[in-house]
Amino acid sequence: MRYGIYSDIHANLEALQAVFDRFEKENVDEYICLGDIVGYGANPRECLQLVLEHKSLIVAGNHDYAVAGKLNIDFFNPYAKEAVLWTRKQLNEQELQYLANLDLIQKVENVLTIVHGTMNFPEMFDYIQTSYDAHLTLELLDTPVCFLGHSHVPVAFFQGPTVSFSMDEEFAVPKDGKTLVNVGSVGQPRDENPQACCAIYDDEAEKVSILRVEYDIEAAIKKITTSGLPEILGERLRYGR
Ligand code: ZN
Predict the structure, then answer these.
(1) Ligand 1 centre and the CA of 231: distance in Å?
(2) Cα of 176 from ligand 1 centre, angstroms
(3) C-alpha of residue 184 to centroid of ligand 1, in Å
(4) Number of domains in the chain
(5) Is the terminal CB of the chain with fewer CB neighbours within 10 Å at N or C?
(6) How far, in Å, is the centroid of ligand 1 from the Cα of 170?
(7) How many angstroms is it from 197 CA to the middle of ligand 1?
């Protein structure tokens, strides 16, 4: 099976459409969404619809819960907070309810696990940044691989005598090992590469490929500017930070 795995769309429709086009070309069988469908960008409703049309397996991101009123936004930075409040006004009751009801962790039995932040405290939406953070999630993992998002930076961690990591575009994910894969961000990359980021997991080939996809960044920026969202949320897309 070939899984098309994507995260942190952040209401960037141009980027999401480009990612789905690429997945189609790559003959993906199943779609998996790791959360933060909304927040920051100008097309929350259209992105949610597109995710649902592709019958993705989905987990909640902090922005999804925040927009749905399920997470305290006092600790969000001012721009993120403004985007949450703006997004909440764009969605109807049914859409907000859908986001509120998303699970924090999902599993495809014996194949993979998905979560937005960490497995040890999924509801806290912490970041996996160090080998120790990775170790805490690897300890709880009972499938060969866990896919996650949240940091908007693609990176993989491998369990071994010590936890090692890789930022390669392609790497092996052995079924007798344990691996964590952060698939980067579709709609707001923060690794200084402005192209949309996503991943393909081929479980028979035991391999993950990180893909970068070009999309119409200027169109996405223009929509953010004209919608009344903070301009910086558009500007940062140009630089991938
Ligand atoms: Zn995010």
Answers:
(1) 18
(2) 30
(3) 9
(4) 1
(5) N
(6) 23
(7) 12
Q: Give 127 Cα–ligand 1 centroid separation in angstroms.
A: 11
Domain containing residue 219: CATH number? 3.60.21.10
Give the tens place of pLDDT for each residue, 102-160: 999 999 999 999 999 999 999 999 999 999 999 999 999 999 999 999 999 999 999 99
| d(CA 87, ligand 1 centre) in Å | 14
Q: Which domain holds residue 9?
A: 2-238
